[in-house]
Amino acid sequence: MNAFAQLRGLIAPLLVFSLITNLSVLISPLFMMQVLDRVLPSGNIATLVLLAALAIAALALQAVTEAARDISLGRLSRWSERYGADIALRPNEGDAQGLIDKVSNFAGFIGGSAALVALNIPWIPLICAALLFIHPSFLMLLMLLVVTSKGIEMIAASFASSEQDAASKVRTLEKQTLARADQVQRQLGMQNTLQNLRQRFFSLLEARHTHLEACQRTIGFGTGAVALVRSSGQILALALGAYLVTLNKLSPGGMIAASIILAKGFATIEALLNHIPILRQNYRDYKSLCAQSTETIATSIDMPDLDGHLRIEGIIIPRGGGAPPRLDRVTLQLAKGECLAIVGPSGSGKTSLMNAMSGEAPPPIGSVFFDDNELKGLPPAALNQSVGYLPQQAALISGTIAQNICGFATEQGDAKILTAAKLAGVHGLIAALPKSYETDLSHDMYLLSSGQRQRIALARALYDDPQYLFLDEPNALLDAEGEKALAQTLLRLKEQGTTIVMILHRSGIMGLADKVLRLERGRVADFGPRREVLARLGLGGRRIELPILESSSDDLKDWVASQFTRSSDEAFSQKAQAVAAELFSIACQNQSKNTPRIASFVFTFVDDTHCEISMVEDLPNDLAKKMASARENLRKSEVFLTDLPRDEAALARISKLCDRYQVRNSEDATHFTVSLAGDTDISDKGREWIN
Description:
- The protein is α/β, with parallel strands linked by helices.
- Helices cover 56% and strands 13% of the residues.
- The protein folds into 4 domains: 1-135 and 278-296, no CATH class; 136-249; 310-536, Rossmann fold; 542-677, Heat Shock Protein 90.
- Strand 4 (365-370) and strand 5 form a beta hairpin.
- Mean pLDDT is 82; it is low at 681-691.
């Protein structure tokens, strides 16, 4: 049950406090009545002493009661803020800031004067009954004073509202005029216009002040009139009481008592009328807080350290509206320290699966098990300690780099920060900054590139030494150096037994995966060891199909680079990437504007120092004339590559880099095969001669 709803049980004791404080208003009237009616006529000093002692004891009780009430309301206010903040800041809460504002307003209401006004409401009839008991005329006078006061306020507000609206409209015109002046100020030859706009602004300013003066005058007269009614109330009560005394319908003590009670009643009713909007708003906030979910996760049981095994069973994430689900019955299992690569076309459900597995968005149907612990049963603290998550475009927030890495932990561990940074391969990068780990990203975010921010975010994901690491396209924003550092980090994590799940579009770190999961339209199209899945995808990773788009060139080069695993083959790899890029450039020149096309590449090692790259594009390409033109240019003494058409320049570069090449056209495709040797230097020479 929501604890806010249980606050209703505290209304009764608080009303008891309020009853005692409201009854205390009768102490002075009753004392005066008894003194005037009993002590003075009889001259009995003992009665006076007894009455004074009783009055002082009652006032002491009032003081103790008010102190206890204020302390109780203060504690209740602080409890409401703590409990409400706990609800608002739970994971997956929608408008957390809006909920925090409601909690803050409600806590301020409980600890402020508005709560005292609310507690006085049930006792207004008591005050009215006391006046009625003394004489009905005093109750009629109270009602007359309240109606007169409220009427004056409403009339004053009615007259002032038109002036306030006019002042608001003029203020809008002022802002527009200043905006126009700011535009004109940046342009030449418009000084006259600028001067006119300034004069217009001061004219509007004067007009707004005139409206505000009229508004203030009306409100001032209204406030003064209400103060006059309030001050006159007790005098009128005394006058009315004196008149009733002359008619022998009231005693002098009753006259004094009625004037005091009437003043208290008028103040109470006036405060209530002024606080009605506040009371309504806080009542709405209270009902909203009572309606908040109070699902809690037991934290009293110490959870064992998670070992690294991961299992998901029958995950289904509905899309709604009768559409196919985002994920449909996905099941898999990973052992401790295994690395899973999730691949598939855009929209196939990769990110949805990642979020479901990591606990960022637990699946509504199906189960995720960390070791033997179901995800929904894990305390948030245990999950946060054991799971690291890196989104595709991670955000760093205002604060120092050290604070970002430790996640703004209250007890910042410098050793853990350094360990995480070194493990992520960013310690050198951070140390090279002017302020190192104390670099304030609220001012110096420009010092970091997108890839560098991503690597720092990886250090943040590694800060708590998680047993599970989830990475959404971790190499998407990284350059070659960053990707190598990422690969080294993942290798070290695998050696430590960390279970890794990553979504990949670029294949640069595919070789680190132990298993591959391929998704298509939310379903598992293939799952198993990397070599087997890649073999089923095409020639054990030696074959790839790419859309003929300029943006696919980087993917092609990454794929070619992944074929080389020896550090000594770096030059050979660069040469093969360059040739593949030129082949792809030829295909792009032959692109159809209306029909999307696919190019298929096959990579084959002939031996340790020779390889072949074959490209098949699904459209005939008239390369015969282009080859002839390229050969003709080769015979010339001096020809610059930049002078040739792009496709002929590509053919010329290929002819210089390869041992041999072959082009064959069929009815509906072009076959291009290039043989390469790994002993040719392909350093960029800028403008190359073709001889």
